[in-house]
Design goal:
The chain is of the alpha+beta class. It is 25% helix and 35% strand. It is built from three helices and eight strands, in the order αββββαββββα. Strands 1-2-3-4-8-7-6-5 form an eight-stranded antiparallel β-sheet, sandwiched between helices. β7 and β8 form a beta hairpin. The protein starts with a helix and ends in an 8-residue tail after the last helix.
């Protein structure tokens, strides 16, 4: 999964320090599957936690949960704006939909296959703006669909539509999920 540097840069502007740290769990459950913490990386500005299922390596996953703890405050509209600005700078630009649902921002993104990545990647992002955390937490759920043959333009568009439909359903389920970041 791509950690979006553009969100980080947007967070630096007008943000306050992160006073209570996000506490990641070793395991998470989503869509009836257990995910285990497989990778983490922290620095002064952001912490990244990646979870895989079915003993998949973090370098070659089919389903991945990524938690990103930005150590700066950002409201839901700033998250959506920073996400849109960052997506527009990516080459090629992924297909995306951004929206707000209650106190959370959502981003649905579909990346087309490339020579470097012989798969579609489809991600749902959900932002959490919890006052106790004094920073923004992002939950990202990603799936990869391998591509074995070159698709026609019509087949590619059909695949993108199907993935967007799946992401819409996944975002609805994630919205109903009871998981909320814990900050101590």
């Amino acid at each position: 999964m791509v950690v979006n540097k553009w969100i980080f840069l947007a967070l630096l502007v007008g943000s306050s320090a992160f006073s209570q740290p996000f506490v990641p769990k070793k395991n998470m459950e989503l869509f009836g599957k257990q995910y285990t913490l497989a990778f983490q990386n922290e620095n002064a500005d952001v912490a990244l936690y990646e979870y895989t299922t079915d003993n998949e390596p973090v370098e070659n996953w089919t389903h991945l949960i990524t938690l990103i703890a930005y150590k700066y405050k950002m409201n839901v509209y700033q998250f959506l704006n920073a996400t849109q600005q960052g997506v527009k700078k990516q080459v090629p630009t992924p297909y995306y939909v951004l929206f707000r649902n209650e106190d959370n921002g959502y981003a649905l993104l579909v990346y087309e296959p490339s020579r470097e990545h012989l798969h579609y990647e489809a991600d749902v992002k959900k932002s959490f703006h919890i006052e106790k955390c004094d920073g923004m937490i992002e939950l990202q759920y990603g799936i990869r669909k391998p591509v074995f043959n070159q698709f026609s333009k019509e087949e590619n568009q059909d695949a993108i539509k199907a993935l967007m439909l799946q992401l819409t359903q996944d975002s609805q389920q994630i919205a109903k999920d009871q998981w909320v970041p814990t900050c101590d």
